[in-house]
Specification:
The chain is mainly alpha-helical and about 150 residues long. It contains five helices and two strands, in the order H-H-H-E-H-E-H. The chain has helices at about 1-30, 30-35, 40-70, 80-95, 105-145, and strands at about 75, 100-105.
Length: about 150
């Protein structure tokens, strides 16, 4: 039951972090860039940075869980380095899941819930990027019809 609660908390915190970082990223885009052809690439870059932060945060969660509640959870190709935690987090976040690391016990539930949260925020980001691209392309289309 604890893993389910941790997993749900992980999902909710991922959503809150994603929302906060999207708000921050949106407010940090200068006005001159909002009507620039570079807007979609800028948004793409910001989203990539946001996802990297979320993956790193997930690595921190796995490190903490492994060292406290689930010390026997990892095996296989896992050596216990920071890179292992980040890699595991990234593979779950992107829903790829194949890491070469063996995960046992309740931590599998937490990993599954991170994969669900990752899928949801990646979809959220894709919609956000689509909106930025649409804004840019609709603006260009309207300008071409007026000109």
């Amino acid at each position: 039951m604890t893993a389910y609660l941790i997993g749900i908390a992980f999902m909710l915190l991922t959503a809150c972090l994603h929302h906060a970082l999207l708000v921050l990223a949106t407010s940090s885009v200068p006005d001159r860039l909002r009507s620039s052809k570079a807007l979609p690439i800028t948004v793409f870059g910001l989203l990539a940075l946001i996802h990297l932060i979320e993956i790193l945060a997930g690595g921190g969660v796995y490190l903490a869980l492994h060292r406290t509640l689930y010390p026997e959870a990892f095996g296989g190709g896992f050596s216990g380095t920071w890179n292992d935690y980040v890699y595991f987090s990234g593979m779950n976040f992107t829903t790829l899941g194949q890491t070469g690391m063996k995960v046992t016990g309740p931590l599998r539930i937490v990993a599954m819930m991170q994969a669900l949260a990752g899928f949801m925020v990646l979809t959220w980001s894709a919609s956000y990027l689509y909106g930025a691209c649409r804004q840019q392309f609709v603006g260009e289309y309207e300008q071409s019809r007026e000109g």
